[in-house]
Design brief:
The chain is an alpha/beta fold. The protein is built from eight helices and six strands. A six-stranded mixed beta sheet has the order 1-2-3-4-5-6, sandwiched between helices. The longest helix is centred in the first third of the chain and has 21 residues, at about 15-35.
């Protein structure tokens, strides 16, 4: 996390195989969007300038009509999240859908969604109607299933807020000195392994 914020240029580019996995995930996400909601505003495509994603999302949410927003950007207490699909209903409640190309829920997905839910809950309060995970079905036709995780994620809010405060303290300090080990491979191989290995050799 620290290197992602302060030393992103040291990140190792994804391998060809990993990039293909990313591409399949992007394609799956597009198929889900097209299947669930044919019409929606894509913040990334409309604005392109990253610094305006949040303000454009606020603008869209302020419009009176019912709307579907792709890549809706929410910032609360300096924490930034992007929602794959945000639906604002006529009664001003919101349904959020996060799309993962995995076929099952794992710890990494739950950790990601827990932070997103906590930030979205802070923004929308009681108007956050549901927070849903879209998983890929292990079929050749881009099938998927929708799992409502609202109640499960709501139970994690206090723990997540404690973690966020801990992360903020880390980012205010100097670069953490952490010995390399098995954690560099979990839940995925760290993109900064080469950077850390180089520093050990020096």
């Amino acid at each position: 996390m620290y290197l992602e914020i302060y030393n992103r240029s040291e990140k190792t580019p994804p391998s060809k195989e990993l990039q293909e996995i990313f591409n399949r995930g992007i394609l799956f996400e597009k198929n889900v969007r097209n299947s669930l909601f044919q019409v929606g505003v894509n913040v990334k495509e409309k604005v392109q300038d990253f610094s305006y994603f949040n303000s454009f999302t606020i603008y869209l949410l302020g419009l009176p009509e019912q709307k579907v927003i792709f890549e809706a950007t929410i910032i609360e207490d300096l924490v930034f999240v992007m929602c794959d699909i945000l639906v604002q209903n006529e009664d001003n409640t919101n349904d959020i859908y996060e799309i993962k190309s995995s076929t099952n829920i794992n710890d990494a997905i739950l950790a990601d969604l827990s932070v997103q839910y906590a930030i979205c809950k802070k923004r929308f309060q009681t108007n956050l109607k549901s927070f849903n995970l879209v998983l890929r079905k292990d079929t050749a036709d881009f099938g998927f299933e929708i799992i409502n995780l609202t109640e499960d994620l709501d139970k994690k809010i206090d723990t997540v807020n404690d973690k966020i405060n801990e992360f903020k303290r880390v980012l205010k300090d100097s670069e953490p000195q952490i010995t390399m080990g098995e954690h560099c491979q979990k839940p995925y191989e760290c993109e900064f392994k080469t950077y850390c290995t180089k520093n050990i050799k020096n």
